[in-house]
What we know:
The structure holds 2 protein chains of 2 kinds. Chain A is 0% helix and 52% strand.
Amino acid sequence: AQSVTQLGSHVSVSEGALVLLRCNYSSSVPPYLFWYVQYPNQGLQLLLKYTTGATLVKGINGFEAEFKKSETSFHLTKPSAHMSDAAEYFCAVSRGGNNRLAFGKGNQVVVIP
Amino acid sequence: GAVVSQHPSRVICKSGTSVKIECRSLDFQATTMFWYRQFPKQSLMLMATSNEGSKATYEQGVEKDKFLINHASLTLSTLTVTSAHPEDSSFYICSARVLLAQETQYFGPGTRLLVL
């Protein structure tokens, strides 16, 4: 079975500073990895995903993530935080016949002006 | 592309009544849809996997008689919360899997259910 660990439920970052959200996964087979963003009272929006190929994945809104198999990690970064980045971010992993997603607990990002 | 809608976005009902939530894929066909439940400030918990034309597969601990799922077409799945109780109050989110990109799920905007 797959599982995801996201540490630090709340992350505060200054506007213009680096955003770094950590995600570690466990999977018995090569995983598919995802980052989703959720704004208040809304569903989830796909930021980026890794399935195969290049391990550095670029997504929307300037975010990117790197799949590191040796570290079983898929950390999300953005060089310069913007106020509009304030939201909840979820890392997820899937694999297996039905490609069910397992989510981490999420990181609530607060951007400080 | 890959837009998923849910209706209603918000519903308030009395205890004991049933509530139906619709999930539609607007611009693609979805052979598989998923239903999640999210409690405040928590992650999404998968409730069931819905395949078009067949019975839904429920996760352990989810009562199939309470949460009825119907996936009658390639663009529509419904979740009916039967005999709702206050503890069923939650944020319900559906997702749909694109036929030609099986690894990716696209999520609806969610339905806020409040049972009084």
